[in-house]
């Protein structure tokens, strides 16, 4: 009704100016309101008013504070409660930014679930094939690009390690984990783009987790030896693909290995010519 619409708009405006909390919308989870589509109508007007004043980040933050950021689908009647309908509906209501926000939330949630489940599988010593099968199912479900997904796989491998507090143990733990699970990484680094993405991910990871910083070269060397990344990917990373995070330190660390690879490459070329 017109009255409801005015009230919803007012709530959206007040919430955007932080004069009221958006958690007043939680009353709309009542089954009969949802079923009749009244909840959806109401939140649509409220969100529209909010987004007329503030950007999606503000709305997202308000939804999170209210604990409803992961419950947006629950405003939809049960027979319309799916991602596709959600996207179509809010796009038609000219709130594409809400669709993108929701989609990213879903993706982040799926990413986290994937990392956690793969971590558990690795810690329970599931065999490589089982882990790869699970991950292949997830990449399909999430419609991920391989170059994005290989980074998720790396996170899972690292999270599965019970890192020692003794610095001298770290090198051994890192090399063992990478070597043991190289085939899992290889399954999701089947092209140059994914190989580069993996190298970049490891660089950033070693930058953020400083205990691994000095072991970057060792990790890359193992990945090369285990045929996860090629020398071409390593050269590309070294010459123009490295990320900005501690770039100088990592390039310097990699220099001897890259030089060695170049020597090996030129020797094999000479042999081919002979």
From TrEMBL:
GO CC entries: cytoplasm; membrane
For this protein, the record's InterPro entries field holds: ARM-type_fold, eIF5-mimic_regulator, HEAT_5MP1_2, W2_domain
Query: Could you tell me the superkingdom of the organism this chain comes from?
Result: Eukaryota
Residues covered by the W2 domain: 104-271
Gene3D superfamilies found in the cross-reference section: 1.25.40.180
**Protein name per Swiss-Prot or TrEMBL:** 2655_t:CDS:1
Native organism is Funneliformis caledonium
């Amino acid at each position: 009704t017109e009255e409801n619409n005015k009230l919803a708009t007012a709530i959206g405006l007040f919430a955007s100016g932080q004069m009221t909390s958006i958690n007043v919308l939680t009353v709309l989870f009542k089954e009969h309101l949802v079923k009749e589509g009244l909840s959806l109508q109401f939140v649509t007007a409220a969100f529209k008013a909010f987004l007329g004043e503030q950007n999606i980040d503000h709305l997202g933050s308000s939804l999170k504070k209210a604990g409803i950021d992961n419950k947006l689908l629950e405003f939809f009647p049960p027979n319309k409660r799916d991602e596709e309908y959600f996207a179509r509906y809010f796009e038609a209501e000219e709130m594409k930014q809400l669709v993108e926000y929701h989609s990213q939330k879903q993706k982040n949630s799926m990413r986290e679930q994937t990392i956690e489940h793969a971590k558990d599988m690795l810690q329970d010593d599931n065999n490589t094939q089982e882990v790869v099968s699970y991950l292949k199912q997830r990449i399909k479900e999430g419609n991920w690009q391989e170059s994005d997904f290989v980074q998720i796989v790396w996170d899972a491998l690292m999270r599965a390690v019970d890192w020692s507090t003794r610095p001298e143990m770290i090198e051994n733990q890192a090399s063992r984990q990478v070597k043991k699970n190289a085939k899992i990484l290889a399954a999701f680094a089947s092209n140059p783009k994914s190989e580069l993405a993996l190298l970049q991910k490891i660089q950033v990871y070693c930058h953020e987790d400083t205990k691994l910083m000095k072991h970057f070269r060792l990790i890359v060397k193992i990945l090369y030896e285990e045929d996860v990344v090629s020398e071409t990917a390593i050269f590309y990373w070294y010459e123009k693909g490295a990320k900005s995070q501690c770039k100088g330190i990592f390039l310097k660390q990699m220099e001897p290995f890259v030089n060695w690879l170049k020597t090996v490459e030129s020797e094999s070329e000479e042999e081919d010519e002979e």
